[in-house]
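User: My advisor asked me to double-check a structure prediction for Methyltransferase, family before group meeting. I don't want to rely on an old file, so could you generate it fresh from this sequence?
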Amino acid sequence: MSPPGLTAEQLQQQVHSLGEWFHNLDLHGVQTAPRHPLGDFPAVFWRTFQRAFPTDLRGRSVLDIGCNGGFYSIEMKRRGAARVVGIDSDARYLAQARLATQVLGVDVELHQLDVYDAGALGERFDVVLFMGVLYHLRHPLLALDLLHEHVVKDLLIFQTMERGGTQAGPAAEDYAITERSAFERPDFPKLHFIEHRYAGDPTNWWVPNAACTEAMLRSAGFSVLDRPAREIYLCQRSTRPEVLQ
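Assistant: Sure, here is a fresh prediction for Methyltransferase, family from the sequence you gave:
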C-alpha cells in the first residue's frame, strides 16, 4: 500500500521529484512514465516473453541486474520468489525502485552495484535477469564471465539490443588464415562498436548481431535453451569452453 497518509497528488509529486522514469509503473493509479516513447514500457515488452519464466518461483532466489525502476523485480515477487535482489549503478533508478516497492508493498532488496561487482553479494542466485545492460558496458564479455564465475546458479534471462543478422549460423572449430568469405556472412558473429552515440546515448557502446549474442553466451559458459522473443535469451549455466578452464 502507499506510505501512510500519502494522497495520490503527494505520490505524484514524489514520482516527479525522482526525475525521468524509464519504467512505467502503475503505483495505485499513478503512472510513473505515462508518456514513454515506447508506450507502456516495459509491460508491453514483458508480455512478449513472460511465458519463458516459471509461473511459480516459490523457494527461488532472483537477482535483477540493472533493475532500473524495479519493474522486473516486482514481477518476480509477484511470481512468488522467496528473495529478490535488485542492483543498479545509478542511484536515481534505485531511488525510483525503492519508492515503487514501498508503495506496492513488495519486499525487494536493493543495492548500488554495477555488474562487475555483483560477486560482492557473495552468493549465487537461482534466476539472474541481465537485460538491457550489455550494450552499455565497456567490457561486455568480462561481465558475462564474472556472472558465470560468481553469480548464476541455474538460469540466466538475457536481453540486449541487436542489429544486423537475426539468425546464427554454424560455428566452425577453426578458420584458415586465408578465410575471408565467412566474415561477410550475415549469420557470422559481429559486435558493432559505437564510438560516439546511438539513439542520443553516449553509453551505448556495443551492438551485437544475433549470432554474436549466442556466441558470447556460449563462450561465457551459458547454454541457450530458448529464444522466446526477439533479443531475449533463456539460458542455463553450463561448462565453459575448455580453453577457459
